[in-house]
Each structure stands twice: as C-alpha cells, then as structure tokens.
Amino acid sequence: MNTSLLWILLLAGACVGSFINVVVWRLPREESIVWPGSHCPHCGRAVLWHDNIPVLGWLSLRGRCRDCHQPISARYPLVETLSAGLWVSAAWASGLSSNPLLTTPETALITLIGGVVLISLLMPLVLIDIDHLWLPEPICRAGVITGLLCTGLIAVFIEQETARNLLFNHLLASAAGLLVLESLSALAERIVGQPALGLGDAKLAAMAGAWLGLGGLTVSLGIAVFSGALFGGLARITGRLKPREPFPFGPFIALGIWLVWLMGPQWWWSQWIALIEL
Known about the structure:
This protein is mainly α. The chain is built from nine helices and no strands.
C-alpha cells in the first residue's frame, strides 16, 4: 500500500467514525442523523468545527464539553480510531476477489471500496446492538442492497457465465441467511420457550449472504456461532450473564462477516481443515 492511500484511508475512516458516533447516539432515539449539527447532549450547545476534528478535538478538550465542562465519553475517539484502522485493513481484504476467477484490477478496486462501505455499515450495527440489543432494519437493508450492488459491479468485469453464477449465488445466500436464522429462532422458541435470536440477527445474516455468497455465509456464521458460544460460556461461568439472559449476537455475526471479507472463505476453510487434521 502506498503512503498516500494509507493516509486517505486513515483520515476518511476517522471522519466516518465520527459520523458513526452520531448515528449510534441518534438513531435509537429516533432523531435525525443529519440535523441539527453536532451538539453537546448535556447543554445542547453546538460543537465548534475544530472541536469536531476526529480524536484531536476530544484530546484538545481533554474529554470535556467546552461550554458546560461535562465529560465526553472516551468511546467517541475510540470509535474514530477503530474506524480508521478498519478502513486501512480493507486495503488488504480479499473479499470476493479471493476467487482467482474474479481477480482483475477492477475487482480489486471494487473490493477496496466495497470493504470500506461494508465496515462502515457493520460498525453502527455492532455498537447499537451492544447498547440496545437492536439491529436497525434500515442499516441491514442498506447492507443487503450495497452487497448485491458490489457483487453486480464485480460481475460486470468477469466472464458472462461466471457473472450469472456469482449473482445467483449471492441472491440465494441472502435469502438463505434470512430464512435459516429465522427458522432457528422459531425452533428455539418452540423448544425452550424463547427465541434464541432476534429478527435483526436474521437480517444481518441476509446482509452477510449478499456480500459473501453461500460459502462465505456458511463460514461467517460458523465463526459467529463459535465466538458467540465462547463469549456466552465464559460470561456465564464468571457470573456476568445469568441463565437465559440475552446478549447481543450481532457483533459476532459482524465479526464473522469482516474476517471472511478480509481473508476470503477459502482461507478459513483451509484453516479449519488443518485444525481437524492435527
């Protein structure tokens, strides 16, 4: 990666991270994410433009509002920093182009642009789910549409028959992700009396299918189930979770989606096979 691209991704990622903070705060409160401009939630005073510079603004204010001096959560610069880092990681992502049939300069560029769009949709979903146990349908819907659009753009630059198969695969995967998780949730509700998953999780799985296809969907859900079960088991052992107490599963689905987008499903399959053969 050249230095110019690195800086573009870092700065743009941090700025998008600042906007993600706005979305995460306002969307659950049914407030507009574009109007009014950034303001202190305590005193309501507008944030000066130079105080709104990602990370640096928070540091210059020493984590307090310029007007009312109430503390500003450290989560704001942390989200901005994480967003910047994840945007940079998108430059190394394999995405759909992990398939040798899809590797062209055009598909590499689409993978980069698609990657930063994908992570910018996943981050607010993860943070809102952690805060409110809710995965907003508008963001999930936007994720499905952009995933299919990314697949369609890649299909333009590859052989026609392969393109048709690719598009069908991703459409089928999106539908399968939705139906499989909805079915599992309904089955769990019948067996144990409560849903194992929310409808938002099913919609996030549909988003995974749209971006990753059937193979990628399978791997990403496998990673989600494993990491979610590990977290849930440890949390219950340590007493942080009570029996049948719900916890957000969306972050684990999002983790699976991003890890598969970074390395490609084939890499993860090979690691799993190697682990089995040990």
